[in-house]
Write a structure and sequence with these properties.
Length: 284
Amino acid sequence: MSQSLLQRSSVTYAASISGLGPRWQMALAFFADMDGESIQKDLVCYNAAINTCERRSCWQVAISLLERIPRADAISFGAVISACANGLAWPVALHLLFKTMAAASVATTAVTVGAAISACGNSFQWHLALQVLQRARSDKVKLDAVVYNASIAACETAWHMALEIFGRMPVAQLHPSIVTYNSIISACEQGRQWQACSMLLNDMRLAGLQSKEAFGSAILACAREQAWQTALSLCGAMSLQSVQKDADVCSSAMVACEAGGRFRVAAELLSDAAFLTQSELQWR
C-alpha cells in the first residue's frame, strides 16, 4: 500500500512540476519539497524539473540536476542540451553530446543531435553545427526533419551550406515543412540570393504551403538587389494565394520600386504600408 502511495505521489509531483511551465523557480521549489515529504525522486520527476530549466535557459541548474540522476536517459540529456542551446552554452552542449552521453552509455538520438545543432546555431557556429550533423549521419543516427530544420537555421549566414542541407532532405526521405522553407528562404535572403528565394517560394506553392514570413524574406532580398519586378510579382502572388501582406512586406517592395525608378508604384506601396501599420497598432 505504501509503495502504491509513493508511486502516486511521485507521479503527482511530476505532473505538478510540468504544469508550472515557465514558472521555473516555483517548479524547482516544488521539486525540492519532495525531500521534505520523503518522496523518492524518480527519472520522470527529474526530467520534468530539467524541462523547466530548458524553457528558461537555466543550463547550469539543468546540469546540476542531471548530475544527481542515478541513471539519466536520452530525454534527460535532450532537455539539458536544449537548455544549453537557449543559454548560448554551445561548448557545454557539445561536451554533453559527445562525451557525457557516451560515458553514461546513453545512445544519441535525433532530439539530442538537433538540440546540439541549435546550440551551435544560436551562437553563430554554423561550421560546428555541420560537423555535428555529419557525425550523426556517419554514426547512422536516425535523423528527422527537425534536425535538418535546425541545421538549415544554423546556416542562416551561410546560404550555400543551407541550400546543400536542404537538398539532402529528399535523399533522407524527408519532406520540407513551412519551418524548413522559412529557414532556407531567410538564409538566401541574407545572402542576397533573390532568385533562389523566388524559386523556393514556387516550390512552396507546388507543395501547397504558404508563409507570410517566407514571402517577406524573399521580397526583402529583392529590395536589397533592386529586383523591383520580382518584388511586385511576389506581392501579386501573395494576393493570389490569400497570404495577408503586412507593413514590412509593403515597405520592402517600396524600396525595390524606388531603386528601380518606379516612384508611382512606390508611393502606392508607401500608402499601403502606412495603412497596415495603423491597422496593426489598432489591433494591439
